[in-house]
Amino acid sequence: MNRPYRLGIVGVGKIARDQHLPAIAGNPGFALVATASRNAQVNGVRNYTHIGAMLEAETDLDAVSLCAPPQVRYEQARAALEAGKHVMLEKPPGASVSEVIALSEFARKQNRTLFATWHSRCASAVEPARYWLAEREIRAVHVRWKEDVRRWHPGQQWIWESGGLGVFDPGINALSIVTRILPHEVLLRDATLHVPADCSTPIAAELDCIDTNGAPVHVEFDWRHGPVEQWQIDVETTDGLLSISEGGKRLAIAGDPVALEPEREYAALYERFHWLIAHGTDDVDVRPLRLVADAFLLGKQIEVEAFGR
Ligand code: NAP
Question: Which key words tag this protein in UniProt (predicted)?
Fold first, then answer.
């Protein structure tokens, strides 16, 4: 197709404004023509308050990018696919594993692209780390993903409600990296979820996993951390330590920093979405969400001090 794909954005909040709008503006393969958001609007395009109204009025839209919270992802994606649109999902791709699988099957039936994005997998350290680890023997993995929820999620109520994932909302970014870079699958064995008395989702969690070769993978997520974030993945190998820090912006191997490409997570996501549409294919990897679901399945829930929402 020579013309850009006509795109609609749904759920104009923090991530849509911080990342999606600039990435779309910088990609000549897409033209933003409409939004659907109950309150927010974007200048220079047609704005609707509901995805149904947008799909009904904008019959020549090619694709839709869903940026609302995960609790409404399935209904919005299903409506867009039914209307014949290609669909890009913010992470996490849904509030449950089963709804993502159902969407994936429906997209194939509709012959439309479904792209479940994991933006952290596009961080600069990830592919060099994956390449280096592919030939290595892994001894142990330590994940520490800790930040101050009041700084990073001010006023967001959906994170504390069922399906909002709590601390797994950022934590799933770490799991998306781990499941990409490790040469073996990761299995969850045990978990502890710390749930504030006034919330439905955890504020902190520890996961004990192994890879299918038996190497331990220990994960710590904490939203009570601060003021300096810790977004760190350390992989001990027989050839030394591989260390990803700053959420994937930095990489060190055996103590030496590795030179990386500049950060362009969302630019890369829209390039991939364009490629997937142009090649008539899809990309849906549920493994990070499946580990979160396993933590809720197997984990102990401990009530902790109320958050004060
Ligand atoms: P947000 O700031 O709360 O924005 C989401 C927007 O979606 C809201 O402003 C709201 O806009 C709309 N919305 C909220 N609840 C809705 C509902 N029940 N039904 C329909 N629309 C609803 O959240 P966000 O931080 O942008 O996060 C959205 C998604 O992006 C999440 O899945 C998150 O994990 C992911 N993400 C966030 C970040 C980040 O740094 N914030 C980074 C990467 C990925 P209206 O009121 O106008 O409808």
Answer: Oxidoreductase
Ligand 1 centroid–CA 69 distance in Å is: 5
Q: Give pLDDT tens digits for 216-268.
A: 999 999 999 988 999 999 999 999 999 999 999 999 999 999 999 999 999 99
pLDDT digits (tens, 9 = 90+) for 89-139: 999 999 999 999 999 999 999 999 999 999 999 999 999 999 999 999 999
- Is residue 300 annotated as a catalytic residue, yes or no? no
Cβ 241 vs Cβ 254: under 8 Å: yes
Count how many residues are written for the chain: 309
Task: Give the helix/strand (H/E) hosting 71.
Answer: none
**pLDDT tens digits for 146-170?**
999 999 999 999 999 999 999 999 9
**How far, in Å, from the CA of 129 to the mean position of ligand 1?**
30
C-alpha to C-alpha distances, 266 to 25, 121, 198, 287, nearest whole angstrom = 11, 10, 34, 21
Confidence class for position 2, pLDDT limits 50, 70, 90: confident
Atom of ligand 1 nearest to the CA of 17: 26
Q: Domains of the chain (ranges plus CATH)?
A: 5-116 (3.40.50.720), 122-263+293-304 (3.30.360.10)
Query: Ligand 1 atom 37: the closest Cα is on which residue?
Result: 15
Strand bridging mode 30-36 / 5-10: parallel
| Radius of gyration of the chain measured on its C-alpha atoms | 19
Residue list, ligand 1 pocket, CB within 6 Å:
11-16, 37-40, 67-70, 72, 90-91, 119, 156, 158, 169
Phi-psi region at 280: left, alpha or beta (left = phi > 0; alpha = psi -120 to 50): left
Ligand 1 centre from 102 Cα, in Å? 22
* Conformation bin of residue 184: beta by default, left when phi > 0, alpha when psi is -120 to 50: beta
